[in-house]
Write a structure and sequence with these properties.
With 419 residues, the chain is of the alpha+beta class. It is built from 14 helices and ten strands. The chain folds into two domains: 190 residues, no CATH class; 213 residues, no CATH class. A six-stranded mixed beta barrel has the order 2-3-8-5-7-6. The longest helix is centred in the C-terminal third of the chain and has 44 residues. It starts with a helix and ends with a helix.
Length: 419
């Protein structure tokens, strides 16, 4: 109880000291507010950016392997041998059909190609629109919702009918308030009927194909009239989804065996294809953001350091100003702990208030920024706790030395001292 009373009285003395010296308190708060604002705002932006990127990558699927010409990243411990990758053939439809026929661990196999074309509807034109052509399995391997209309029938896909699905944003650009279902758009002078409107998915910050909002989806058989699907420019790939009870590495080994057999590679030859999966990009992101976070601590640390020095300096001045009062308190029986906690609480409260103000400013700034840019920025609970924890730590570290100095003052010398 005695210890709690000491803490209570020290806390009240600290609050009173802050009220009396309002200007000094305000200036001290400014330093720590800027420090917490700097470091937590950096982490808030980085966390929001990382979450947005990872959400974009999640659309690629954790259980999907992409058979492509180019790898997304070099094998561990190896260089990116682009001159070797350049010689590779691209995946072909016959390989897609062979995987469908032979694979026992694949649940869904889809063949896809893409290109960029101008799309017209009456006098409206959308330039450099992504045209993504797929085999009929696309709706099973890539989850999406239709706002209106329907998906292709198996007959329409296999017959290569001139029909398409259109993304939400592209539909707004071309049709404004008009319902696009049943309307015809033109690509390279060819008329294509819209049968489905894809529901809004949101911006894909990586532009990795994660969002369908600005795309057109075609049957791959019909796409032969718009592009050379055997060309590398069409970026052909085979998307293979593993069965629910199949390990992704087992599927990868099976695909490697099937494709090597189809391309008649002997055991000594290297793979002339890439088996990509989202975990490759996630591993790369982990390394990148680890370095960026270290840089964030380094940059924000300087602001925190300045704020800490500001508190320490003000606390030393406060001890000097109140030396006589400290002497009187000690002569009346105040213990060393009481004096120590009195100044330490003052430093911690100063730092904590500054940190809270900094967090409030970050919250307001993130709300405004989210409405101005495509990136959704939000102050997470983890960053709030980190900001408060840093504020308390800075207050303790900056206040411990002046508090200890005040606690060790000789009562007689303190009473007789002059400021």
């Amino acid at each position: 109880m005695l210890f709690l009373n000491i803490i209570k009285e020290s806390f009240l003395f600290a609050i009173n000291a802050l009220k009396v010296n309002r200007l000094r308190t305000l200036l001290t708060l400014l330093g720590i507010t800027i420090g917490i604002f700097a470091i937590i705002s950096v982490f808030t932006v980085l966390d929001s950016l990382e979450n947005t990127i990872r959400n974009s990558l999640s659309s690629l699927g954790d259980d999907i392997i992409y058979v492509q010409k180019w790898p997304w990243a070099p094998p561990p411990g190896e260089e990116f041998e682009w001159w070797e990758y350049l010689k590779r053939p691209v995946p072909k439809i016959n390989e897609y059909e062979l995987i469908k026929k032979r694979s026992e661990k694949a649940e869904i196999v889809n063949f896809a190609v893409s290109t960029i074309r101008n799309v017209k509807y009456n006098n409206n034109t959308s330039e450099n629109t992504i045209i993504w052509a797929n085999s009929h399995e696309f709706e099973k391997i890539r989850s999406f919702e239709l706002e209106e209309g329907r998906y292709f029938t198996p007959f329409e896909s296999n017959a290569g009918k001139n029909i398409c699905l259109i993304g939400h944003q592209l539909a707004n650009d071309l049709f404004q308030e008009i319902n696009p279902i049943g309307k015809q758009i033109k690509i390279q002078g060819r008329k294509i009927t819209i049968v489905g409107l894809i529901a809004k998915e949101g911006k894909d910050i990586l532009n990795s194909g994660g969002s369908l909002d600005e795309m057109i989806i075609l049957p791959v058989i019909y796409a032969k009239s718009l592009m050379d699907i055997k060309s590398e420019n069409a970026n052909p790939m085979i998307m293979v989804k593993a069965k629910s009870n199949t390990n992704i590495s087992e599927l990868k080994d099976e695909l490697r065996s099937i494709i090597r057999s189809a391309r008649t590679l002997n055991p000594k030859q290297k793979d002339n294809f890439a088996l990509n999966q989202s975990s490759i990009l996630n591993s790369a992101l982990n390394s990148i953001f680890a370095v960026i976070n270290i840089a964030g601590w380094f940059i924000g640390g300087f602001s925190i350091l300045v704020g800490g020095f500001g508190i320490a300096n003000i606390m030393f001045v406060s001890v000097k100003e109140r030396t006589n009062l400290i002497g009187i308190q000690k002569s009346l029986g105040a213990k060393r702990k009481f004096i120590l906690f009195q100044f330490l609480f003052e430093a911690v409260i100063l730092s904590l208030i500054g940190g809270i103000i900094g967090l409030i400013l970050i919250y307001i700034g993130s709300f405004i920024a989210s409405n101005k840019i495509e990136l959704e920025i939000s102050l997470s609970l983890g960053n709030i706790i980190l900001g408060l924890f840093l504020s308390i730590c800075i207050g303790i570290i900056a206040g411990i030395f002046p508090s200890n100095k005040a606690a060790k003052l000789n009562p007689v010398e303190a009473i007789n001292s002059t400021f």
